[in-house]
């Protein structure tokens, strides 16, 4: 495989499916799915709840093993070569006994090659590294606070920092802003976009907020209800950096409406893109 | 009520109980052989203090040795059971079974094995305090948030790294809360063993005093036990508050 090919097929799902349970209780969580994610892409997975979006994320993170097909990274089988992954969920799950800075530094304690030098560098180089990130997301003044002293939005900022501190090749986000109010969420969209433009990791974002997907992603995959499969795959071409006003643009609204139309089985509640959590 | 007033009220109640006790015994003319007055108990304590001290030391010593062993075993078992779902489900029924045996019933067996004296007291103190520690530590470890575990696993953390960085620190508040309970139980355990079969210790002192109808001395022993129990509890509450302060989020 040549370099360009490797980059276009950074993550590749080759007929990957997942089935839980046995016999009568067999549940197909994910229909055999093929999907390619290029290096540096920002892919959003949207779909009704229970459609297997999070399953895809967990398969990529090796938290689940596929029952069918195979997952390749740069053309190689999963597990053959370590792929550095950063992950963030809806609940920030920061460790309450640590300060925000220590929380952000946690991956450096675990991921090679950083972990080898952790003891020696935690007060110097690694601390600066964490502080630079915290500065970037506007949390530097809270670095020495404990998580419970922060608001929900601040905790999610710290959570993003923790997912990025070890320069992951692949950033996996599972509805990271699902529990936040509208204003905070939009603020965090901008933060995430800035971080992505800075560091250009490959991002896989799972969300049920269509506006979030349309604002952030370069490519959106729509999934069908369970058993999930990808029913639409489209590029999002708005110029970057995208201002938050973009969300009032007719083109943007049209895109969101169209995506919504594809997710046929989703009950229509509240405003477009409003939290369905 | 302010905390200060609350404390004053608590102290007032304690003093009040003793005053009532004293007056009640005086006015109702209750025999010293049945219920001695607090002032007589204190007098007995002062009179016999030189005889009492070695017993206090013995009880303290057996309690602490048993407690420390129990904590070590409980912590080890708790970590083992808490870090594996299989071990948790497998070992739990056995643990519940063992813990539901009244510990007094085990003392004769220890006496049979090791003879009357210090060792049965230590063993009783140990065995009685293991269970609450195991339950608390294993629960703390087993209930790590699944999201957090996923984050750690996605970083390719080993089971040991997850245990060390997340599970153990997370179970610390549970552990220290259980120490408070465990030290009190250990203390109960060693006194029980002393009462059944020993030649030393506050429990033994009370047994001997009661057989010679020295009732004020029996009560003086009881008073010493109460003071020891409260002090040990207080020490461990203090440790708990200082070690796992993050779990008591008061300074928000």
TrEMBL record, chain A:
Family statement drawn from the similarity comment of this UniProt entry: Belongs to the ABC transporter superfamily.
Database matches in PROSITE patterns: ABC_TRANSPORTER_1 (PS00211), ABC_TRANSPORTER_2 (PS50893)
Keywords (A to Z) from UniProt: ATP-binding, Nucleotide-binding, Transport
Name of protein: Nitrate ABC transporter ATP-binding protein
Keyword Cytoplasm among record annotations: no
Keyword field contains ATP-binding: yes
SUPFAM superfamilies with a match to the protein in the record: P-loop containing nucleoside triphosphate hydrolases
TrEMBL record, chain B:
Main location: membrane
A Pfam family: BPD_transp_1
SUPFAM superfamilies, sorted: MetI-like
Origin: domain of life: Bacteria
Subcellular location: Cell membrane
Membrane topology according to the record: Multi-pass membrane protein
Domain ABC transmembrane type-1: 56-236
UniProt keyword annotation of Thylakoid present: no
A GO CC term attached to the entry: plasma membrane
Transmembrane segments annotated in the record for this chain: 12-30, 60-82, 94-116, 122-144, 174-193, 213-239
Keywords per UniProt: Cell membrane, Membrane, Transmembrane, Transmembrane helix, Transport
GO BP, one annotated term: transmembrane transport
PANTHER family for the chain: ABC TRANSPORTER PERMEASE PROTEIN HI_0355-RELATED, ALKANE SULFONATE ABC TRANSPORTER-RELATED, MEMBRANE SUBUNIT
Entry's family note: Belongs to the binding-protein-dependent transport system permease family.
Protein name according to UniProt: ABC transporter permease
């Amino acid at each position: 495989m040549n370099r360009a090919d490797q980059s276009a097929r950074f993550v590749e799902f080759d007929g990957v499916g997942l089935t839980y349970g046995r016999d009568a209780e067999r549940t197909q969580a994910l229909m055999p799915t093929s999907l390619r994610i290029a290096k540096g892409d920002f892919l959003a997975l949207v779909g009704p709840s229970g459609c297997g979006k999070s399953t895809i994320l967990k398969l990529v993170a090796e938290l689940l093993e596929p029952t069918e097909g195979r997952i390749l990274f740069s053309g190689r089988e999963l597990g053959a070569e370590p792929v550095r992954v950063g992950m963030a969920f809806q609940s920030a799950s920061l460790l309450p006994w640590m300060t925000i800075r220590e929380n952000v530094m946690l991956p450096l304690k675990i991921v090679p090659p950083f972990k080898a030098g952790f003891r020696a560098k935690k007060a110097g180089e690694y601390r600066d590294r964490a502080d630079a990130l915290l500065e970037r997301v506007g949390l530097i003044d809270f670095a020495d606070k404990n998580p419970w002293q922060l608001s929900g939005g601040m905790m999610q900022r710290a959570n993003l920092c923790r997912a990025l501190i070890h320069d992951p090749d692949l950033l996996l986000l599972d509805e990271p802003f699902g529990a936040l109010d509208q204003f905070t969420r939009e603020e965090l969209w901008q933060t995430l976009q800035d971080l992505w433009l800075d560091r250009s990791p490959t991002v896989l974002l799972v969300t049920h907020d269509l506006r979030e997907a349309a604002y952030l992603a370069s490519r959106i995959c729509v999934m069908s209800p369970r058993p999930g499969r990808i029913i639409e795959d489209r590029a999002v071409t708005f110029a970057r950096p995208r201002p938050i006003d973009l969300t009032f643009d007719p083109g943007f609204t049209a895109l969101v409406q169209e995506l919504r139309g594809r997710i046929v089985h989703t009950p229509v509640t509240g405003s477009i893109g409003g939290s369905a959590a | 009520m302010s905390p200060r007033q609350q404390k004053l009220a608590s102290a007032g109640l304690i003093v009040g109980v003793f005053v009532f006790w004293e007056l009640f015994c005086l006015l109702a003319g209750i025999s010293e052989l049945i219920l001695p007055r607090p002032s007589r108990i204190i007098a007995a304590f002062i009179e016999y203090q030189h005889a009492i001290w070695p017993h206090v030391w013995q009880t303290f010593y057996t309690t602490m040795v048993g407690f420390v062993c129990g904590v070590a075993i409980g912590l080890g078992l708790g970590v083992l059971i808490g870090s594996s779902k299989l071990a948790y489900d497998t070992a739990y029924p056995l643990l519940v079974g063992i813990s539901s045996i009244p510990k007094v019933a085990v003392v004769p067996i220890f006496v049979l094995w090791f003879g009357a004296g210090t060792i049965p007291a230590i063993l009783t103190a140990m065995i009685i305090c293991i269970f609450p520690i195991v339950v608390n530590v294993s629960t703390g470890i087993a209930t790590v948030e699944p999201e957090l575990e996923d984050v750690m696993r996605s970083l390719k953390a080993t089971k040991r790294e997850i245990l060390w960085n997340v599970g153990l620190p997370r179970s610390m508040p549970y552990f220290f809360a259980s120490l408070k309970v465990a030290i009190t139980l250990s203390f109960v355990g060693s006194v029980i063993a002393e009462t059944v079969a020993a030649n030393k210790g506050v429990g033994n002192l009370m047994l001997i005093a009661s057989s010679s109808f020295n009732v004020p001395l029996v009560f003086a022993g009881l008073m010493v036990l109460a003071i020891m129990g409260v002090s040990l509890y207080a020490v461990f509450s203090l440790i708990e508050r200082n070690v796992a302060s993050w779990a008591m989020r008061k300074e928000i």
